Sequence to fold (63 residues):
Amino acid sequence: MMNCKQATQLLSEKLDRPLSAREKVSVGIHTTMCAPCRQFGLQMEELRDISKHYTKGNTRKEK
Fold:
């Protein structure tokens, strides 16, 4: 079974690369049973979305 350190590592990597089927299943099982890791995954996705929104909003050119 995956531990929290492994789960959070994969949840972070998930933002940069597609996970393998095995990794998806392992993370899915772990986050189903572990509320803190599930919350970490949600927070990582929210931070990514906020960062994307912020960078899109600040695309004006400096004079």
User: Anything to note?
Assistant: The radius of gyration is 15 Å. DSSP finds three helices and no strands in the chain. Residues 4 and 45 are 17 Å apart (CA to CA).
